[in-house]
């Protein structure tokens, strides 16, 4: 398919515009460049082309000028020589019309496009700066994988590597070998937790009824104990409040007796205490300030009386002030007039010198000698032009003679080549050039160097990996025959071993804890017995039985002896009961510890039995693992099962890595043999071609020597042919130069004669024309005349300045005389300056005296105002002082201060008495202080202290007992709640089934992701194997040409289960694609895309390929190579390049003369007049 014409009828910024690409010319590249400035509409035109093929988008952004209903795009397409004119409109159905406006089936475009959609076309058959950058990034992300790069270049999918990595990452999140944070691992752990929860709460009915009874008994005991504790605490609290109130009442009585001293003291306002210090300070401050102001007023009055103001100068003050400027001009005139008169004489002398140089000494009107500026300019221009004309004429004469000599020599050289033979023609050297180019462009040598270098690395890698398997020894074949246990079996064993080890550790830890707790309980029992004696229940029972037996004996005999024995046994029993009652808390703890000791003894026996069972299971597991392990893998006797499984897993992983390295070593050996064979065939082809051309003795040369000899032969043939063509071209060039030099000589002679006429006309307008001066004489006359205007102007200006200075001096003398006459004083003209200075000094002194007098008067007025303010402030202060002293009946402020201190002391007593009363009432919870006082009077202090001590001990015992009972209650309640009766087991089972369904869904998703990724990788491998040969050669050659030989081509390097694309620099060696510079990566991706397009065009009909300014960052040499490659693409299918750089158009014209350039946005009728034909725009008004 080919785009013949694109009509932008109503689309975007365009209205009735057409872009005509013309008909394809057989045998020439179908390459077009659409040139336009920024915002000219290049991207709009490309979008319109896509909208024409696939329909205008639902929400198109190109409706800003034309509404959706009016949008229309037309095109003329060429299908294998048949042209079809179609129109696309914006509507949901039947949007594709023929030239008559009838709907057309979309399959008309679908068949040539081979099923491509909009995105696929944009991806595969267009290229812009963004996709070029994405392609360079894809080279880095794929890490040079050959399959990915070839496929992404053909399909234009720069993000293929990211997609495959994302797929693998998503699968690893679901499940990963030995991974503990994957989704499946978390769900499996959830199942384990649910099973543990069910086992914990699923309890039999008999056990449940026992737990309920235990819980009710514990609840009843705890309630009774809490009631006793509450009553005891309440009684103890009441006694404590009374004991706290007793010392408060004593202090209250003491303060009340002391308060009677202040009964007659009056109560002043509250702010007097803070006001008194300031009043004391103000009394001293105000009097001090008044005294200071009086002294300042006396001093100022004395200074004012001494000031003398000259009032006589006021009428002439303005004229005296104006003398300063006149005096300066008078002094300037006195100083400058002698120099100015000397300068005027110098100007007159300079004028005389100029007139003498012009031979006009007697001329009285030198102004008449001046010439117009236009005439001077014309004469100077003619003078300057004359030297150039003379030089041009001489040069033209000399060049004409030299050109005649060069034509003669070129004719001799051309005649010599015409008689010389023995130069190989193009047909004779073409086979040699083809064979040499093929040999140089292939990557066999690079592959051979890379493979041989890689073989050493692979061999070392293989030996290192093999050494990691020691003590096992052997080669790859023997290693392949060993079948170690699978990873799943190892993982199963590890899980089983971990469970056994976990059980062993758990039993050991619990056994250690039980023994520790048993010893701790025994130690606490012994400590209680050592502190409290034998107060346990057994000792109490023995004492009770002994007392009963003594009573029975006494009843039987009723004598003194049995009575004394009974009395002793009874006292012993009472003492024991008293001790048990006093030590009730220790007794309860002793009972609890005895029970705990029995429980711990039973638990220790059970843990020891379980520990023996777990150790037996560990031994059985080690035996099973040893039987399932191949005999080639040595079994270390001193290792645990977990250590052995880790060793076995590492050995299996090392075996896999070693086998991979062994296979890679075998593969690189095969590649070396293949590269040597293919390289030998191409060397043989070059030898045959040189032998046919008549070159002998090349069979014994090495490959490098053979290529050097072939290159030298081709260079010599080309050089000789070039020299012969150069000689003929040189003769024609010399003959053309001879004609040009003849014309130059004629033009120079004509220009010299024209100058002579202009010279005579210019001299006729001057006063010195009668002397017929030469060019040199006129140049000197003009030079002398150049200084005449300035000299005349300076002379006249100097005379004017002298007259002005004399006028200024006379005016100043007259002004000074007038002022002195007004003052009645005598004026001496000889002392004019001194008189003026004296007047100025006298006036300045008078002004200073007047100003000083005003300042002092203002200061005196301010001090008077200050004194009046201080006197008023003192009166207010005295009134306030009188109010304070009268209130207390004292004379001074110091006495007032003493009275205020007594008032403050009285207030402190009052506040403390009130606080004590409130505290006593609050402690005793009475309504009034009198009731509280009456209650305290009836209290027996010693009795209350005794009762409070007894209650404190009882509260402590009851608190300890409630803690123990609460612990029993909590344990019983927890056990009952753990059983539950609300369907918790059913809910857990429902959660378990839900988790199983989630595991099933994730497993299916994991399989889909893994199989999809494996299918994509296999497809990439197949695509690589199928297209590597042809596409690699095209990409290698394109890359070599784009880089101008900096890289000799591309090669493939095997690595594990894939091949890596590498570049082969011109200096030798290799460079990974991700190690290239950013610009080189872009050019590599471009080479792959160009090769991919040619690969695609071989199996499908070609479609237009569109590139949008992809050479923004390319230099000019590489841009030339890219245009050459685009021209080769254009021989297969239509290629359209969009750009806003005019220099790229010029480069394209230079490289591909037949390129057609279309200038966007300019009417054909207004194209530049001097523009080349192929640069005229093809965008015409419709």
UniProtKB/TrEMBL annotation:
Signal peptide: none annotated. Residues 1-200 form the YhaN AAA domain. The keyword Transferase does not apply. Pfam families: AAA_27 (PF13514). It comes from the Bacteria. Keywords: Coiled coil. The keyword rRNA processing does not apply. Residues 283-310, 504-531, 941-975 form a coiled coil. Residues 1163-1182 are annotated as: Disordered. PANTHER family: DOUBLE-STRAND BREAK REPAIR RAD50 ATPASE, PUTATIVE-RELATED (PTHR41259). This is YhaN AAA domain-containing protein. It comes from Phyllobacterium endophyticum.
């Amino acid at each position: 398919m080919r785009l013949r014409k694109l009509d932008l009828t109503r689309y975007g910024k365009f209205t009735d515009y057409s872009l005509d690409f013309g008909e394809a010319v057989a045998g020439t590249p179908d390459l077009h460049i659409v040139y336009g400035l920024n915002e000219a509409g290049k991207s709009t035109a490309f979008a319109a082309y896509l909208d024409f093929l696939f329909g205008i988008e639902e929400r198109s952004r190109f409706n800003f000028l034309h509404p959706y209903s009016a949008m229309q795009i037309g095109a003329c397409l060429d299908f294998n020589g048949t042209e079809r004119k179609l129109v696309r409109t914006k509507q949901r159905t039947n949007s594709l019309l023929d030239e008559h406006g009838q709907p057309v089936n979309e399959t008309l475009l679908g068949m040539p496009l081979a099923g491509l959609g909009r995105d696929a076309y944009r991806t595969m058959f267009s290229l812009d700066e963004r996709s070029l950058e994405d392609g360079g990034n894809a080279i880095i992300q794929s890490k040079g994988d050959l399959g990915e790069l070839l496929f992404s270049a053909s399909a234009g999918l720069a993000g293929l590597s990211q997609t495959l990595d994302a797929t693998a990452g998503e699968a690893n999140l679901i499940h990963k070998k030995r991974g503990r944070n994957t989704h499946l691992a978390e769900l499996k752990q959830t199942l384990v937790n649910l099973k543990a929860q069910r086992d914990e709460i699923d309890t039999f009915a008999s056990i449940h009824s026992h737990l309920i009874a235990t819980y009710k008994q514990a609840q009843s005991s705890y309630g009774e104990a809490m009631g006793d504790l509450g009553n005891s605490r309440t009684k103890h609290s009441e006694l404590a409040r009374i004991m706290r109130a007793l010392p408060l009442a004593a202090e209250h009585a003491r303060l009340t007796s002391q308060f009677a001293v202040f009964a007659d003291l009056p109560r002043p306002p509250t702010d007097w205490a803070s006001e008194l210090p300031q009043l004391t300070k103000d009394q001293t401050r105000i009097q001090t300030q008044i005294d200071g102001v009086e002294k300042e007023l006396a001093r100022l009055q004395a200074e004012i009386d001494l000031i003398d103001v000259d009032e006589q100068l006021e009428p002439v003050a303005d004229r005296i002030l104006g003398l300063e400027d006149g005096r300066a001009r008078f002094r300037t005139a006195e100083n400058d007039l002698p120099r100015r008169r000397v300068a005027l004489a110098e100007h007159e002398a300079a004028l005389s010198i100029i007139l003498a140089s012009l031979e006009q000494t007697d001329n009285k009107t030198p102004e008449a000698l001046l010439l117009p500026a236009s005439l001077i300019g014309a004469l100077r221009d003619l003078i300057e032009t004359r030297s150039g004309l003379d030089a041009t004429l001489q040069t033209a004469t000399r060049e004409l003679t030299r050109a005649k000599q060069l034509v003669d020599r070129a004719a001799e050289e051309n005649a010599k080549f015409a008689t010389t033979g023995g130069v190989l023609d193009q047909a004779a050297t073409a086979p040699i050039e083809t064979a040499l180019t093929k040999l140089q462009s292939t990557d066999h040598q690079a592959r051979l160097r890379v493979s041989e270098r890689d073989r050493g690395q692979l061999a070392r890698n293989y030996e290192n990996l093999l050494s990691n398997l020691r003590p096992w020894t052997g080669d790859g074949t023997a290693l392949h025959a060993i079948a170690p246990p699978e990873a799943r079996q190892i993982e199963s064993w590890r899980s089983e071993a971990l469970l056994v080890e976990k059980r062993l550790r758990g039993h050991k830890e619990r056994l250690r804890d039980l023994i520790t707790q048993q010893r701790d309980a025994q130690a606490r029992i012994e400590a209680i017995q050592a502190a409290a004696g034998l107060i346990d229940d057994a000792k109490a029972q023995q004492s009770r039985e002994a007392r009963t037996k003594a009573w029975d004996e006494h009843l039987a005999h009723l004598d003194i002896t049995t009575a004394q024995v009974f009395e002793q046994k009874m006292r012993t029993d009472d003492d024991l009961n008293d001790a048990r009652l006093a030590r009730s808390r220790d007794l309860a703890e002793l009972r609890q510890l005895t029970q705990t000791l029995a429980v711990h003894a039973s638990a220790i026996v059970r843990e020891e039995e379980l520990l023996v069972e777990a150790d037996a299971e560990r031994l059985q597991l080690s035996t099973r693992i040893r039987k399932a392990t191949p005999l080639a893998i040595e079994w270390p006797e001193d290792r645990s099962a977990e250590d052995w499984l880790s060793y076995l897993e590492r050995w299996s992983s090392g075996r896999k890595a070693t086998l991979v390295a062994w296979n890679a070593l075998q593969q690189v050996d095969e590649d070396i043999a293949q590269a040597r064979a293919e390289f030998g065939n191409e060397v043989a082809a070059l030898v045959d071609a040189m032998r046919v051309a008549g070159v002998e003795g090349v069979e014994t040369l090495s490959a490098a020597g053979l290529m050097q000899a072939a290159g030298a032969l081709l260079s010599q043939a080309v050089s000789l042919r070039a020299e012969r063509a150069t000689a003929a071209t040189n003769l024609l060039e010399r003959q053309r130069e001879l004609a040009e030099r003849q014309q130059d000589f004629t033009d120079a002679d004509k220009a010299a004669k024209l100058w002579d006429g202009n010279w005579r006309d210019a001299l006729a307008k001057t006063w010195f024309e009668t002397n017929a001066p030469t060019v040199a004489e006129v140049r000197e006359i003009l030079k002398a005349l150049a200084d005449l205007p300035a000299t005349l102007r300076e002379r006249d200006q100097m005379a004017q300045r002298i007259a002005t200075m004399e006028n200024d001096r006379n005016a100043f003398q007259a002004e000074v005389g007038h002022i002195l006459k007004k003052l009645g004083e005598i004026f001496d003209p000889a002392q004019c300056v001194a008189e003026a200075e004296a007047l100025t000094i006298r006036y300045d002194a008078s002004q200073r005296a007047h100003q000083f007098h005003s300042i002092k008067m203002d200061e005196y007025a301010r001090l008077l105002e200050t004194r009046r303010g201080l006197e008023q402030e003192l009166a207010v202060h005295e009134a306030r002082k009188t109010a304070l002293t009268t209130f207390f009946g004292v004379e001074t402020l110091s006495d007032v201060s003493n009275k205020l201190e007594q008032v403050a002391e009285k207030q402190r007593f009052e506040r403390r008495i009130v606080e004590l009363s409130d505290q006593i009432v609050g402690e005793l919870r009475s309504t009034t202080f009198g009731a509280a006082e009456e209650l305290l009077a009836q209290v027996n202090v010693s009795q209350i202290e005794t009762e409070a001590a007894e209650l404190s001990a009882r509260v402590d015992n009851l608190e300890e007992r409630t803690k123990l009972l609460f612990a029993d209650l909590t344990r019983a309640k927890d056990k009952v709640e753990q059983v539950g009766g609300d369907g918790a087991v059913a809910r857990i089972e429902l959660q378990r089934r839900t988790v199983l369904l989630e595991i099933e869904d994730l497993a299916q998703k994991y399989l889909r992701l893994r199989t999809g990724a494996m299918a994509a990788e296999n497809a990439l491998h197949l695509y690589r194997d199928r297209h590597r040969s042809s596409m690699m050669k095209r990409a290698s050659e394109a890359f070599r040409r784009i880089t101008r030989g900096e890289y000799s081509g591309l090669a493939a390097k095997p690595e594990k289960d894939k091949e890596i694309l590498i570049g082969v620099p011109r200096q030798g060696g290799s460079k990974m694609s991700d190690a290239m510079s950013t610009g080189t990566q872009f050019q590599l991706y471009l080479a792959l895309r160009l090769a991919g397009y040619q690969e695609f065009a071989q199996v499908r009909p070609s479609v237009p390929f569109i590139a949008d300014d992809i050479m923004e960052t390319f230099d000019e040499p590489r841009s030339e190579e890219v245009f050459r490659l685009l021209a080769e693409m254009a021989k297969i299918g239509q290629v359209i390049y969009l750009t806003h750089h005019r220099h790229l158009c010029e480069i394209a014209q230079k490289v591909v003369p037949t390129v057609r350039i279309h200038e966007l946005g300019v009417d054909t009728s207004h194209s530049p007049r001097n523009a080349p034909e192929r640069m005229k725009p093809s965008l015409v008004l419709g």
